What does this fold into?
Amino acid sequence: MRLPKGFKLDQNRNRNTHILKLLKYIHGLEPAGRVWNLHLHKGLTELKYKLLKVYPCLYYQQGIILTVYIDDCSILVSKGKTSMENAIKELAIKFE
It folds into this structure.
């Protein structure tokens, strides 16, 4: 990554020999999906969701099934409307 225009360096430093160090992942970079997946996994396990060992993209919790594809929650299935609405609210609060 090159230094952006307008970024000021000390007088004795050469703009062509310095680079920037990213302090966090930027969306669109190769490891960004994996970092988000780790964050999502941590949050879901804190909410008492369990990961199926046979299908590592499926999480479950008391009648709720949630599928994850790389960095996206794609399907949420529940036994009833109330438990579905509660799960959505819980996830929204956790990941806002």
User: Anything to note?
Assistant: Residues 8 and 17 are 14 Å apart (CA to CA). The chain has a mean pLDDT of 82. The longest strand covers residues 72-78.
